[in-house]
Structures are given as structure tokens and as C-alpha cells.
């Protein structure tokens, strides 16, 4: 993200985005992340991030416009993926939304996938105690279009059991035809989904409109 700050800020401004979720930021320290994300954001945006200097960790971030009230919810001791968890509120919403922006490393053996699903379920179980409206975004590195593979079947069953919908249904990576960058939603209305190559990454940008379902 270091060398893309102006492009990201321009993308957010020109598309009038209220939230921008990014993965693989490659930001390794809190100070660096704060400075870079400020440069990558329009005025008055707030940023929430997870950074780590550990090998294999790539960083995730959520940038939020002043239209929304955002609060960081710290999550510790997750080993199989990185995430930033944010509570989002809007004056026109009756419900708060818990957003989880995550990155899972590209390891596709069944044991690794199952370990990921176990940890992901633990995180969701904690979330369900307080939040009914949840949106999850990120690079899962799971080729959900290959639904004949066992690990994909188990992932899709995981989504069904947890009552998550999923978008998009088209490739999101410039070097393959697979769907690996996902938007998952539970009690959240998602519409206007489009995938676009903005040339700021080898992954495409997924655009969508969303708001919490206004009922219990």
C-alpha cells in the first residue's frame, strides 16, 4: 500500500465510498500503518488495521468515512488468518453492523482449511453474542467456483450453517479465473455488486451497496 496511497484515496473519492476494505497492505508497524492509511484516505476518514512483522503476515485495513461511526474491536490469538473487526453505525440504521475484513494465506490442504474454519467459527460465535448483522470481506484464498473439491464443499456448508450469503460470482484475481475475494453477509442487504479492474492491485476491486436488515 505504501506506493499506492494517492491512487487509493482517489479511488475512494471518485467512487464516493463510505468504507474501503483492503487486504495485503504489507504494513508492518503501527506507526507506519497510521501514516500510510492517513495518506490513502480522504479527509476525516478513520482507519482501523491489523499489522504484524511476523513472516507470512500481510496486513489488513478498513477505512471509514465520517458518514459512519466506526469502533475497533480487538481480536487476539488468531493463527490461521488475519483480520480487523470494526463496529459500524449510521444515523439512519436501526442496527449496528459488525464488519470483519480478513486475509487467509493461500494454503489449500484440507487440514489447513478445517483449522481456519474452526477459528473462524470461534470468532463468529463470540460475535453472535452481541451482533446479528454481520458482513465479512476479504481474500479467503478459497476457490469457491471449484465446488467439486472437498475443501470448497466444507467451506460452502460452513456458510450455509451460519446463514451467510455470498458475493461475487465471478473472477476477482487477474492471474486466474477463480473467485477468492468474497463478501459474506448475514442479516445485511447487499446489492449492486460489481467487480472492476482498477489497476491498483493484481486483485480486482469488488464494489457493493449494503445496509443492515432492519429487523431482529
TrEMBL record:
It comes from Pagothenia borchgrevinki. Residues 99-206 form the Endonuclease/exonuclease/phosphatase domain. SUPFAM superfamilies: DNase I-like. It comes from the Eukaryota. This is Endonuclease/exonuclease/phosphatase domain-containing protein. InterPro entries: Endo/exonu/phosph_ase_sf (IPR036691), Endo/exonuclease/phosphatase (IPR005135).
Amino acid at each position: 500500500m505504501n506506493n499506492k496511497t494517492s491512487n487509493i484515496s482517489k479511488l475512494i473519492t471518485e467512487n464516493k465510498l463510505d468504507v474501503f476494505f483492503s487486504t495485503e497492505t504489507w504494513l508492518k508497524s503501527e506507526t507506519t500503518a497510521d501514516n500510510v492509511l492517513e495518506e490513502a484516505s480522504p479527509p476525516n476518514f478513520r482507519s482501523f488495521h491489523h499489522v504484524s512483522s511476523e513472516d507470512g503476515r500481510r496486513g489488513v485495513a478498513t477505512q471509514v468515512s465520517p458518514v459512519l461511526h466506526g469502533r475497533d474491536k480487538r481480536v487476539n490469538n488468531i493463527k490461521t488468518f488475519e483480520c480487523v473487526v470494526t463496529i459500524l453505525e449510521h444515523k439512519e440504521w436501526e442496527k449496528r453492523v459488525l464488519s470483519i475484513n480478513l486475509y487467509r494465506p493461500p494454503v489449500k490442504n484440507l487440514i489447513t482449511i478445517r483449522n481456519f474454519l474452526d477459528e473462524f467459527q470461534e470468532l463468529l460465535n463470540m460475535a453472535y453474542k452481541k451482533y446479528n448483522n454481520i458482513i465479512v470481506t476479504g481474500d479467503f484464498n478459497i476457490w469457491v467456483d471449484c465446488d467439486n473439491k472437498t475443501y470448497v464443499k466444507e467451506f460452502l456448508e460452513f456458510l450455509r450453517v451460519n446463514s451467510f450469503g455470498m458475493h461475487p460470482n465471478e473472477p476477482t484475481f487477474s492471474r486466474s479465473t477463480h473467485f477468492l475475494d468474497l463478501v459474506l453477509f448475514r442479516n445485511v442487504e447487499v446489492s449492486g455488486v460489481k467487480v472492476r479492474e482498477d489497476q491498483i492491485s493484481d486483485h480486482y476491486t469488488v464494489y457493493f451497496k449494503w445496509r443492515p436488515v432492519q429487523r431482529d
